[in-house]
């Protein structure tokens, strides 16, 4: 199963923030061939919520780095490079949420979190060290994250067609940077956080919700389609070659309030 559910947008791997690694850094994109044995969890203590807490945003940025990239263990300066990527995503995420990026009406970071104590009982992993934060006197870990974007289009991505006209400025939205910690796949966390994102989008008045996904990412396509998304369009091959990435599909979901829902 792939380690990420949507092609990252506006983040550490977006062409807007593209990083060209040196030969020594050996940064590899995650592919669907990386399979990790899942750990079953007790979801009674799972919390999925919007956040603007800097500690939690930092934990989310760290999860995105470890989800969207794989590093060769023997790589020189690997920890410094991971921190550099996390810092860049952290600052970009804060700017998007604060409304400092043009073209966005609103952006929210949704995180799925679990108590640190529960995860430590399952495995001794760097997920707990890298993605933990403290809130209300409790140590928790970000185990899933995504962005909800209220906008007409995302930079360097094909745009949705619904709704048309000026309504599209406020009633169209996109999910981006969707990922779940690889150790916790097959626990339904992807479905849970997407369900929450639908509620947030509907609260904002979004009637047409979109997500981009690589054509070869079968687990992600299955997740989105089971969540109600359907095919609308696909990226031209020339655009994918120009941006040096796998070609992407654009999936659409009509939310309550949409006349076609």
Automatic annotation (TrEMBL):
It comes from the Eukaryota. PROSITE patterns: GNAT (PS51186). InterPro entries: Acyl_CoA_acyltransferase, GNAT_dom. Residues 80-256 form the N-acetyltransferase domain. This is N-acetyltransferase domain-containing protein. It comes from Salix suchowensis.
């Amino acid at each position: 199963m792939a380690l990420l559910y949507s092609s990252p947008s506006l983040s550490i791997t977006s062409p807007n923030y593209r990083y060209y690694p040196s030969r020594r850094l050996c940064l590899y994109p995650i592919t669907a061939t990386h399979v990790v044995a899942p750990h079953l969890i007790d979801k009674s203590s799972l919390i999925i919520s919007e956040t603007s807490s800097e500690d939690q945003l930092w934990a989310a940025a760290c999860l995105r780095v470890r989800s969207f990239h794989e590093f060769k263990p023997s790589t020189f300066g690997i920890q410094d490079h991971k921190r550099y990527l996390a810092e860049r995503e952290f600052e970009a995420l804060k700017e998007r949420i604060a409304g400092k990026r043009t073209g966005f009406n609103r952006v929210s970071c949704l995180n799925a979190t679990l108590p640190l104590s529960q995860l430590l009982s399952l495995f001794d992993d760097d997920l707990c060290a890298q993605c933990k934060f403290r809130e209300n006197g409790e140590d928790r870990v970000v185990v899933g994250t995504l962005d909800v974007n209220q906008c007409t289009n995302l930079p360097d991505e094909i745009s949705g067609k619904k709704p048309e006209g000026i309504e599209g400025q406020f009633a169209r939205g996109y999910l981006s940077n969707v990922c779940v910690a690889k150790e916790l796949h097959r626990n339904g966390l992807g479905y849970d956080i997407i369900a929450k994102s639908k509620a947030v989008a509907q609260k904002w008045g979004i009637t047409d919700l979109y997500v981009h996904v690589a054509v070869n990412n079968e687990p992600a396509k299955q997740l989105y389609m089971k969540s109600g998304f359907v095919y609308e369009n696909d990226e031209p091959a020339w655009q994918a070659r120009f941006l040096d990435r796998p070609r992407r599909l654009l999936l659409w979901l009509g939310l309550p309030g949409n006349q076609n829902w």
